[in-house]
Amino acid sequence: MDSTFVQACRRGSTSYTPVWYMRQAGRYLPEYRALRESHGILDICRTPELASWVTMLPVRRLGVDAAILFSDIMIPVAAMGVDLCIDPGKGPVIAEPIRSRVEVERLRPIEASRDLPFIAEVVEMLAADLEVPLIGFCGAPFTLASYLIEGGASRRFDHTKALMRDDPETWHELMRRLADAGIASLRAQVGAGASAAQVFDSWVGTLSPAEYEEHALPHSRRIFEALVGLGVPLIHFGTQTGELLELMRDAGADVVGVASGTPMDEARRRLGSGVALQGNLDPAVLLAGWDEVERAARDVIERAGAVPGFIFNLGHGVRPETDPDVLRRLTDFVHEETAK
Ligand code: CP3
Q1: Which residues contact 102 (CB under 8 A, 6 or more apart)?
Q2: pLDDT along the chain (340 residues), means of 10
Q3: Is 201 in the pocket of ligand 1 (CB under 6 A)?
Q4: Left (φ > 0), alpha (ψ -120 to 50) or beta: where does 25 sit?
Q5: pLDDT on residue 194
Q6: Overall pTM > 0.90
Q7: What is the pLDDT of residue 164?
Q8: Quick check: is 23 catalytic?
Q9: Closest C-alpha residue for ligand 1 atom 30
Q10: How far is it, in rounded angstroms, from Cα 136 to Cα 199?
Q11: 23 CA from centroid of ligand 1 (Å)
Q12: Using an 8 Å Cβ cutoff, are 62 and 21 in contact?
């Protein structure tokens, strides 16, 4: 029988609401910080024994209903031949930003068995060892393109939007290549045993609905169309996506990840009952006292309502300052509260 998490993704009824946390395998865990003293993040991602150990760290500790593969959205991009590193506190940094047709054409197509052999290896290890389903993931083309074009993290995405508007052919070619890389990576993850796949379009909320529809949606949709035959639930997440939720749903995933800015009842009203929802406790709330965490968590649960097809999560990733014991208490609280 399917796990509670997969059943909820499929909008089946479950005996309690399943829980996992974006960035549950990260710096708020002392064991992870200790490992990072001797290993770079990309090394950990590419070493199956280490990546599998980190993936499992939060599972027992937090009592969550799903694991998420320890990797990064930039791993397939590096395999395409891009020279990059990940700066603690900043995120991905690209040695030579990509802004021209010639640079786009230098990006190599990925063949997972040749370019990402460690992915199948770590997923196979995890699928054999985990007691909960494993979520595989990739970055959506827009979010990956924004790192490549800006050269790193950005607030305004000026270079990204300039390329998108001034040279749509180069833009769409870049987006096609990044979507292909995501498809190759997710096929490898699901082929090796991942039970669900999440596409992170973390920064796409910077686009207007019209821009999203023209410049990003067709490429994200192609990822979901390519994966739908694999038979695992597909999840689509972004932040600041209040205006884009309906379009993101239309891209074709089974589950829409809702960020903290949109109340769950509003998301449900706008998206209808034909899609499962995931989210959306504000991760900053976890830095407040327990009473406030409990109040905010109960609010999310009440707004999600009794409709089948809800997965409790945060509205974005766990902050490094979060106390793991608070997350554990939160998991237990959601399980108890929703089992009533
Ligand atoms: O439990 C998990 O979710 C861990 C697996 C994971 C990582 N990155 C490991 C990581 C996942 C799912 C990601 C996805 C990812 N990477 C996204 C989409 C999710 C999101 O939060 O929006 C994005 C935008 C990236 C790019 C990236 N990599 C960022 C923005 C950062 C953080 C920079 C920082 O230091 O604050 C990274 C680095 C990174 N990836 C860390 C982890 C655990 C922390 C850095 C470290 O260990 O030095």
Answers
A1: none
A2: 94 97 97 98 98 98 98 98 95 97 98 98 98 98 98 97 98 98 98 98 98 98 98 97 97 98 97 97 98 98 96 98 98 96
A3: no
A4: beta
A5: 98
A6: yes
A7: 98
A8: yes
A9: 91
A10: 9
A11: 7
A12: yes
Structural domain count, the chain: 1
The pLDDT assigned to 340 comes to 75
Q: Backbone phi, then psi, for 36, in 5-degree steps?
A: -70, -15
- Give CA–CA dist 200/235, Å, rounded: 9
Domain hosting 329: range is 4-339
| CATH number assigned to the domain comprising residue 44 | 3.20.20.210
Q: How many residues does the chain have?
A: 340
**Peptide bond between residue 280 and the one before it cis (omega within 30 degrees of 0):** yes
Tokens read off for 117: 């052999």
As to burial, measured by CB atoms within 10 angstroms (0-12 exposed, 13-18 middle, 19+ buried), residue 124 is: middle
Pocket test for ligand 1, best of 86, 122, 202 (most atoms within 8 A of CB): 86
Q: Decide if 193 contacts 157 (C-beta within 8 A).
A: no
Nearest residue to 160 via CA among 170, 82, 176:
170
Q: Which helix (H) or strand (E) holds 150?
A: helix 141-150
Give yes or no for a contact between 312 and 303, defined as CB atoms under 8 angstroms apart.
Answer: no
Radius of gyration of the chain (CA): 19
Burial label for 274, CB within 10 Å (0-12, 13-18, 19+), is: exposed
CA–CA distance, 258 with 247 (Å, rounded to integer): 13
Decide whether any atom of ligand 1 lies within 6 Å of the 72 Cβ. Answer: yes
Strand, helix or coil at 135? strand
282 given a catalytic annotation: no
CB of 202 sitting under 6 A from ligand 1: yes
d(CA 127, CA 194): 7
